[in-house]
Amino acid sequence: LVGNYVSALLQKTSNQTAAEFIARELIQPLGIENEFILGIPPTLPESRLAMLDGQSVLEHLMSDTTPPNLLRKILLEPWSYTSRSFNNPRLTIALTPSTYNRTDVREIELPGANGHGTARAFAKIYSAAERAIATSCRENPLGFSMEALEELQKPATGSRRGGWYDSVLLFEFPLSLCFWKPVVDRESPGRFCCFGSDERAFGTGGVGGSMAFCDPNAELSYCYLMNRCFTFVYDDPREFSLRVAAYECANYFLDKSLPLEQLREPHYLTRKWVQRHPIFFTDD
Q1: Which end of the chain is more exposed for a tag (fewer CB within 10 A), N or C?
Q2: Sign (positive or negative) of CA dihedral 184, 112, 162, 169
Q3: Reported pTM
């Protein structure tokens, strides 16, 4: 939904679409023209496109890894913030990840939902921010200002009325400048998604289990993409296990210690699944 607002602002203030802005400001400077596209052109061969293997509506309803009442509101309460957000634009009666396999949907320039790219491309974008931060903008292919980088690294703050609670997703969801932010709650481990080694990290996940972020403290940029979609909002076990391994490697090579115990703690919604599948996470 935020992507629609951003697209409208760009068109009103600069007379360019979100796809044109992204191509000029991100894709061309980083040389990833063939690795990221917002809205698929008819000339792109289908052989370059992965098909999303989305779970059915019934599978979603049977899952206990999504926030309570989320699917009920999407399907049965069309007047709710949740349903209106998830069904905007209204592409089908029951929107699932597989909807984005349709050619007519792939062609739409839909910021926030319809970017097609490789994990390497997303990681390279976040790496540009990480390098600019680490080198005080000496390495800065995207031309970030120090002020912008400082804002990106600021900890998230809860709203005055609702705190961290998200009225669309129906659970606590820290955000800042449209990015997910890690928040450490030592009294209640797993309350938030702690994808970064400290609160300076910023990134965002996607439907089905994907995740990309920048962690300046760990000097790490990271992306995980998949085509088999699960129902986890935070910490898909496949992505989570890979992320933990990446941090363990980074901790080995860095001159400082990372909070590995904190990074190994999954979000409480994912913890339910982990407890049922303990073999998925072993020291081996």
Answers
A1: C
A2: negative
A3: 0.90
